[in-house]
Amino acid sequence: MLFHPSEFTRSSWKLLLKKILPGCKAIETSSVEEVRHAVESVQVDALMMEFHPRDVEHGIDTLKAVISITGGKRVMLICGPPAPVTTRTAMQAGASVFLGCNESVEELKRALSAALECVPYMSSELASALARSVGPINAPQEEEESSQYALSVREEEVLELLVSGMRPSQVASRLGLSMKTISSHKRNALGKLGVSNILEAVRIWV
Description:
Layout: E1 2-3, H1 7-20, E2 28-29, H2 32-41, E3 47-51, H3 60-70, E4 75-79, H4 83-93, E5 97-99, H5 105-117, E6 121-122, H6 124-133, H7 140-147, H8 153-163, H9 168-175, H10 179-193, H11 198-205
Helix pairs in contact: 2-3, 8-10, 9-10
Keywords: DNA-binding, Transcription, Transcription regulation
Organism: Prosthecobacter vanneervenii
Domain HTH luxR-type: 144-206
């Protein structure tokens, strides 16, 4: 389902969906009520929506309403600029599959697969933008908040690279460590943050 798509989104997504999922049927909705009716009438495997927090038709209230109807794990968001602010806002609303405005076809395939499987996903473009938006921890309040998680320097290093969009194998190569060691640092960091995956870690740590 395409929710209130722009002309660009409408044409590009329909073409991509035909290539990625030849047998799928794409439907359009232009209001929350139409989304509700569609969900009650047919099986909706995923909903694609552009997200611009300050836009009435694509804003936070609309996103929350759509998520309450469809479930956040099935909502794919194309996050408009500024990407870090938009993505954090969408996270707080409960969405879990995120794309930037200029993604590759392969990235779109991975995001769509995640939405269909109801698993969290963030594109490397957005993950990198979030990582770059994090400044050094200097303020006393930030130091206090950071210290409660008590991540080691290496755990922070591994987590930052994973959040930036790198794969575990790439992190291992970058740091000159084994995959087993990277997995151990990742597991320890996620455990200290009290989360189960990188996307949940971004919500807290970034």
